[in-house]
Amino acid sequence: MVEIETKVTLMIRLAETHDLETLDALSEKTILHMHQNNLHQWTLAYPRKAHFSVDIEERRLYVYERRGKILGLMALYEENEDSYRELIWHHRESLVMHRVIVDPDARGQGIGGALIDYAITQCKKQCKPSLKIDTHPANHTMNHLLKKHAFQYVGYLKSIHRLAYERIIDHSFMKKVLVLGGPGSGKSTFSKKLGQKLSLPVLHLDQLAFDKGFTLRSHATFKKHLDAYIRRAGRFVIDGNYTSFPSFDRRLALADTIILLNFPASARLKGIMQRHHRNRNKQRDDAADGCIETIDQEFLGFTAFYDIKNKKLRGMLNALRHRKHVLVFNTRADLMRWFNNL
Hints:
Elements: E1 10-14, H1 20-36, H2 49-57, E2 61-66, E3 69-78, E4 95-102, H3 111-125, E5 130-135, H4 140-148, E6 152-157, E7 162-168, E8 176-181, H5 187-198, E9 202-204, H6 206-209, E10 210-211, E11 215-216, H7 219-233, E12 236-239, H8 247-254, E13 257-261, H9 265-279, H10 297-304, H11 306-320, E14 325-329, H12 332-340
Parallel strand pairs: 4-5, 8-12, 8-13, 9-12, 13-14
Antiparallel strand pairs: 1-2, 2-3, 3-4, 5-7, 6-7, 10-11
């Protein structure tokens, strides 16, 4: 039995035969709650005691228990889904989450997230490259939860009317990473952390784009220095957008991983003010030589209305999701949850 302990007595453990009545009652309660909210993902015939009994026998059903009460469950399968062959996935031979259930009276308490984190831990222990799951298109709660936990949308499974998601576990392929996002999103700070964790050199594009006093260099000069760096380094974390520069398409083509910090304007403006307070009248280590930290109304205005430009960028990245490892984070908490699980 594997336990996860906190200040309150809780654990995630393998389900046992004596749990069957409780699991069946919890499933029925959840299905009825779904139907009351016009979500018909399951019928009252599935999943029920007979399905859980097989899962227990196969030692693939886990329960979330707090103070002796079961509040959630999930099944973890070796990949064997015929319907999954309809889509192009990043990896094969993964673990698959099924029958994820959280007591309707315990929603919003982090139980679903805890089950996902536990499944990720099992993938790592079993050397599985990814974790897969499918859910009903109208299950907005689950779709939102999966995106918060860095699952990538893979596509629509027509044969079973489900949306498919995959969470990459094996990150050994990450050798050429782009970090994008609006001003104040923390691209530079995060890129340094990511480079350190992955043992990759970090390039801040601001250092190539400007001369002293924030004088913008020509596109040709920028490209020359960027090309030289890429040839010399071979692998990298590159921090910065410069999407209007001709080199942007080449950067996208070279990258194996693209990370977008898609934070709201309020969070980014706060980040800018905090950065300015820390570095006022100083040169940041990620800035070009002779560029002293400053702030003005024009820059704040650009930041506030960056979301308009960001929509086009998100569209470009969405078109790349089958060919690249594309991650979009809407909050810093989501970003750091993924980072800490690397």
